[in-house]
């Protein structure tokens, strides 16, 4: 029996304990205490960061920089319906995005490294709060943590039910999109629906705005570039026979390239200005720039590829979903990959954020093994 086999029960127990205590971003108090307790006596220097986050550092003999690994900590506002005996004890909260598994994998790596007397290279384990929002990674970067620990490379993973169990999904370069949130308010002129000539119809203006926005990606962005602009919510008006005075719209922007993202924003402002002049309305827009694009370092991609069997590695297509791991990659080379969890036979097919999301816990050992192999590749021990 190898060391990982011996640790398997501990890693699964850790995951099940964490699964029962999901908490919102920056409020992961129980989770933080649990992680600290598990790290105690494992030979790491522990530091608090970003309110509820935990850093675990162990110094190696080499003068080379630090290799870092990150796990996200927060749960989701979802009422669990899995029926497992270790289900969430927090009403209306659930680890429906696999973060309990990510933490268990990182704690599994800590347990493994604790059995190695001397490390050749520094290691930093980052237990990060608030990945789901508003972005704990940004806070950690702004606190200069990567500089403080001289991080040269950072790795992260995500359990992923769209990929078969046992497969590792990754690609070099852009893998996940930059994202922004869009709030628009149109102020027009109300009046009786039977006398529209005395009004300025906010709903009509809103339809022109949506139509114009839909031309941005199709007519202003180069076809080979990936981009999305979607309006997902629209509301306004008070009665069927009254012309609406105020209309509110909400949407999202996604793009892989920052210049494309900025171009979409620029066209939004230009279209709004044109509609204001055409119809005599006022259009207020707030665009909140959220997470940057996840862009995988090519050399780190090659390093991972050298540690995973060819039959297990899948080069996936870029995805329009977002991840705040991107903030780390703006500062240092980073690699983010997917750990497949789809298992039709066992019924693990529900998507991320589903109230029935779950996975075969054997994949936790696979995750730890990949991290161990990365450590070997970079001569951590």
Question: Keywords, please?
Answer:
metal ion binding, 10 helices, Aminopeptidase, 381 residues, single chain, Amidohydrolase, alpha/beta, Peptidase_M20_dimer, Alpha-Beta Plaits, 2 domains, elongated, 4-stranded antiparallel sheet, 8-stranded mixed sheet
Can you walk through the features of this model?
With 381 residues, the chain is an alpha/beta fold. It has 2 domains: 3-177 and 293-377, Aminopeptidase (3-Layer(aba) Sandwich); 178-289, 2-Layer Sandwich (Alpha-Beta Plaits). The chain is 33% helix and 27% strand. The strands form 4 sheets. It has an 8-stranded mixed sheet, sandwiched between helices. A 4-stranded antiparallel sheet has the order 10-12-8-13, with helices on one face. A hairpin with a 3-residue loop joins β1 and β2 (53-58). The longest helix is centred in the last third of the chain and has 22 residues, at 258-279. The radius of gyration is 24 Å and the shape is elongated. It starts with a helix and ends with a helix. The model has no long low-confidence stretch (mean pLDDT 97).
